[in-house]
Structures are given as structure tokens and as C-alpha cells.
Amino acid sequence: MVKHQPLQVYERQLCLSCLTGIYGCRWKRYQRSHDDSSKWECTWFLILSSSFLLLLVWSYFWWEAQNDYNEFNWLLYNRSGEWNDGTVPVIAATLVGFSYVTFLLILGLCHIALGQQLNLYWIHKIGVLAVLTSTIAGVVSIDDLWRDEWEIVLISLQSTGPFLHIGAVAVVTTLGWLVAGQVMHGGLQVIVLLLLYVCVLLGLYLVPLTISSPCIMPPASLKPRPSIIGRRGAPMLAPENTIMSFNKALQQKVIAFEADVTISMDGVPFLMRDHTLRRTTDVASRFPGRQHEDASLFNWTEIRSLNAGVWFLRNDPYWTVKFISTRDYGRAVNQTVCSLVELLRLAAKSNCSVLFSLRIPAPEHPRHKLWISDVQKAVQRSGIQPEQVMWTQDSYRYQVRASAPLLHQTVKEMLPVDGLKEKATHTLSLHYSKATVAEIRDSNVSLNVYPVNEPWLFSVLWCSGVESVSSDAPHVLCKVPHPIWLMSPDEYCLIWVTSDLVSAAIVIGIFILQKWRMSGMRSYNPEQIMLSAVARKPGRDVNIMKEKLIFSGDIGSGPLASSSESAYCNCIDYLCNSTASCFVMY
């Protein structure tokens, strides 16, 4: 007997084809399946999710580490001897890897939402493993090379924590649709998934109990805006430690200059951050055989003959040279190494203070026992008031105090009150990672924090009560008239509770909606025969309808077989008369 079977008329599913094709290279309809995913593919989805979370933390770290990009490059320079912007390849690789893994994760979640079987293509598996391995290698390398920088992640949470909490609640709430869809299928694994989801959601609801930010305070308790100190001048606008750089800092209304001082062979204190002159001068072309020598082994005449501006225009360490005017470009080309006397005279003229740290000459250096008197002579020659000079010197502190009692001395470590009295100082200059909010608010001394280049960090320290900050970017901080955000505890509590309640209501609604959908699908009788006829335009009949006859053996017997055959014949007659589509389902 001939069995008549109509070819089903499939609607084009371009989006679904792209979804399964890109994720698992399943471009054809017959390659797709609604069966449960294998344990192997579920494991790969967990690996993909873990890679996403790791890359999310890694990307967040580098986003917040913008404050210290120059410190990172300087660290690499001290290890390799060559100046390169090491952040560019790291950030580029992180951006590519994060985008790739995020895209695959979204495709995987769409598979789950549509009930499609997970089947990650083998090329994507290799790609995910490559991204995961390289990210782990990067984390290990940074932990070895730049371990102290991890502190910025915890510090940044004081600024971003409340907003990250709201974002995380929104994401987990959205995932409730997928979880609810899986829960409705039942089973032990589904119960475990539901418990895990509820625990994560409740944990997020209670996270604000652990969030502590100095910016959550009554606005009336906010202290005055911290003063800004130009760290090596304004090194983003001009070559560092040059007169041009300090003049640029003055234009940004700084109250003081911060510099690093070295003593030359003939006893002239000059400004130099590095141990050698290679990075910031043209010593390689002027004195090729001495480019690796210590900067203190040159006399002042030799140092003064070096150009200290071309390197800035060539290397562009802060990516700011393209914004420099033609006039400033010409000035930068002609900059020379600045002496301490020149800096002090500029400070005296502009009524600014100077905060400097001195690198003590080596024992074999001719000025090893005379460096204190060399600095004191420079202060006297400049005409600046000794009270305007702050000397950061942890070693030989008592000798400095005995020789120059009028100079203010600062400390680079947090000490108890008795320790500060012993060192005869009332000024602290701390790295931002070494100053906690509680210590800042409880300290009874003048506190300066460095380096502060990003507005978010400046805002956090402002709310903490810091009096001044040292910055490589005074032109950026001078445009921050108030903290980025500031709210009272009651306002934050209201936002917290409201977001949690809205999230809980949405999650409950999602589960109710999914249960209603599933109950509607279960009430459908798959054995009934449905006829669906849609009239088409006669001119498009050939393009829209596809039908075939498959000739085979016995069609079967029984009521269902005869009913199907009758329905099919009726449908064919209808199609011939009204040019419609027919679906036979059983």
C-alpha cells in the first residue's frame, strides 16, 4: 500500500540557524536537537562560564589600574632597560579575549533559553582554553611582578561597590528566566540548581552589609577639597622634572611640587627619578659609553648639556603629545635637566612648597658625606623659606634634623603618635594602598597621599578626609569640583532595599510565568490532528508550498492510521482548491 506523507512546510529560522551555527557549527535544521546536553558539553559550558568570570575580574583590575599605568611601565623599564608601553598589548589581548568569551557565553545561554542542545564547536573549545590559559598566566605574572597593585581592586570597590551590587542583582535576576525554565522540567539536578540560584540571589541581597565606602556619609560631614601637589610637575603635559613641567603644574593651581633629587659628582642636587640618565635624556648619543652609568657619576656641566625633552615627544609615555600645542612642542624640545635650586626658586616665586626625596650617594661617591650640606646650600641659595621645604628622608633623619632644623621632615609610613613625636614630624606622605579610611580619619597629622591620577580615587580620598594628594595629572583633578558620588546612609539603605525587593518580585513573577507556560504546553494532546490553512497569493504558491509523496510499504492499520490517511487526503484536496498549507501532526 502506498503511504502518503506530506513534507512539512518549515518557516525560515535565520536567527536560530546563526545561533547554533556560530556556537556549534550546526547550520542545518536536522543537526539541531532538543535533547538534554551531555555531561561533557555541560562541563565545557562550566569552563566557559569560569573563563568569563576570571576575565571579568582581570578586566576590572586593568580598568582600575589606569591610575598606575605609568608606574607599571616604569617597573618594566627597570627590569628590561628599554622603555615600552607594556599596558597596550595586555589591554588589547584582554579586550579581545573578554569579548570572545562573553559572546560565546551569551550564545550558550540563548541555547539554554531556547531548549537547544549545547554542543560547543571544537575550534571554540581550543579558543576558550587558549584564553583561559593566557589569562591565568597573566594573573600569575602580575602577582609576581606587581603584587602590590592588587590592593587597588579592594580600594576601587569603595567607589564602585554599590553600583556593582545593583548590576549583579540585575544580571542574576535576568538569569532567573533560564533557571525557572529548567526547574519546571523537574529532577534532582534541577533541585540542586534551584538551591544554588536561591543561595546566590540571597547572598547578593545581603552583600551591602559588607560594603563600606567613605562616600556613604552625611554630606554635611564632607571635609574641604584636598589640595593637589604636582608630582614631578605635570608629567602628562610636559617632560617630567623640568621647569616646563612645573610651570604647567602651576597653571593647574597646585599648592606644592614633588620631585626626586640626586647629587652630582661635583655636589649639585638635580632632579632625576631614575638611577641612570637613559630614559629621560639623550645621554646615549652624547656619552655613548656612559649611558648605563649611575646618574650621580656625572658632573653638573655634563648633565646640563643633555636634552631632557625629546624623549617625551618620542616615547609619548602618557599618550598626550598629540594634544600639545605647537608652541609647547617647541618648548619641550629644548628642555634640560632641572637643578634643585631652580625648582626652589620657582616655588619661592610662586609661593608654593616643595616636597622632595633624596637618593643618598653611594659610599664610594665623593659627596657621600657631604650630601646634607649640598642640599642645605641649595636651599639657602634659592632664597626660599625653610618652612616651605619638606624633606622625605627615612634614613639619616637625625643628622638631617641636626644640620637643617628648620626644614620640615615627612614620613612615608603610618606610625603611632609616639613614633611621629620621636621622628619630630607632623606630616605623612603615604602610598594610597597604605592609608586606610579609619587611619586617615583618626590621624592627627597632615596627610598627603600619592599617586592619585583618577577622579574616582580622588573622590574616595576626599570623602576619607585626606588633606592633599600628589598627582601626575593635576590637570585632570583640578576639574573635579566635588566627589563623583556622595549619599547619606539612609539614602543608600533605601536604594539597597528597593533594588532587592524589585528583584525578588521579578524573580517570583518569572517563576509563576514559566509555570503557567509549561502547564499550558502539557495540556496539549500530541495525538490530535491539527489542520492549519493559510491562504496565499496564487503567484507565490510554488515558492511557499513544498510537498512530496513517499512510497513505502504498508501504512499500518487501526483507527489512527485510517484517520491520518483520511485527514491527509482531505488536506491535499483543500490545498488543490485553495492553495493553502497543511500540517499533519500526530
Automatic annotation (TrEMBL):
* Homology family: Belongs to the glycerophosphoryl diester phosphodiesterase family.
Q: What is this protein called?
A: GP-PDE domain-containing protein
Q: Which GO terms describe its molecular function?
A: glycerophosphodiester phosphodiesterase activity
Provide the protein's localization. Answer: Membrane
Q: Which GO terms describe its cellular component?
A: plasma membrane
Originating organism: Electrophorus electricus
An annotated GO BP: positive regulation of neuron differentiation
Keywords associated with the record: Glycoprotein, Hydrolase, Membrane, Transmembrane, Transmembrane helix
Membrane topology label: Multi-pass membrane protein
InterPro entries named among the record's database cross-references = GP_PDE_dom, PLC-like_Pdiesterase_TIM-brl
Start and end residues of each GP-PDE domain:
226-481
Residues that span the membrane, as ranges: 42-63, 90-114, 126-142, 162-180, 187-207, 494-513
